[in-house]
Amino acid sequence: MSHTVQIGSKSIGAGCPTYVIAEAGINHNGDLATALRLIDAAVLAGCDAVKFQKRTPELCVPLEQRELLRETPWGMMTYMKYRERVEFGETEYREIDTYCRNRGIAWFVSAWDVKSVDFMEAFSPVCYKVASATITDLKLLRRIRETGSPVILSTGMSTMDQIRAAVSELDRQRLILTHTTSTYPCKAEELNLNVIAALQAEFGIPVGYSGHEVGLQTTCAAVALGACLIERHITLDRAMWGSDQAASVEPGGFARLVRDIRTIEKALGDGQKRVYDSEIPVMKKLRSS
Fold first, then answer.
1. pLDDT in tens, 108-128
2. Model-wide pTM > 0.85
3. Where are the domains of the chain?
4. Which of 49, 81, 106, 176 has the fewest CB atoms within 10 Å of its CB?
């Protein structure tokens, strides 16, 4: 059995309640009011944390993509201008930090570059998320390890060797892996939920699931298969503009997801076969001896 990892006031691992993260990401489209509404939806649904994404555009946008034109809600603009348009800075994150504290929900980010880690350190985040896209960025992994914070490492579009290399750069006592397939949205036949058990067996650390599928049933199945942490994108409306919206869950769906996860936790039990008191009257009625 793997150890547990502490994120804020919550323990994550076998035998602990499933840690549920609402991934707001950039579904706010650069609008602070929308971000605060996403936080409200996460709180109402009963989530443990809400997560955003932090990038330094001049470091994360490849040179050959910077001048490509993109159609956006604000008109045609270069990809670089778009990335800058949706990126929050210190003013927005100060507001988010205060708002989450007042609402009683943890928050953190996927930091996509070293400069973003340096930026986030001012907020003393409860943990860091390493996105699947950056799992091979060893410089980033080393900087995140230096912070001493717990780390959630996503494993989409990665080979086992790449995952092993990333794990070797991080503190396993503060590390949680998340199985994921980086397709938006992802087909059921490519979710491969049995990888959760494979990662648990190989690394002996807590393993969660980050889902990009349409619907909730397969995310619930991940909990039944042992995922100690669940992350799904949250949106106010799946019809909103943005590449992650179609694979996101609206507020009502997120509330149902958390409700069903808590029911599944109760239903799984401890694995010890017993006769319950509620069965005794039935047994007396249906058995002669």
1. 999 999 999 999 999 999 999
2. yes
3. 5-286
4. 81
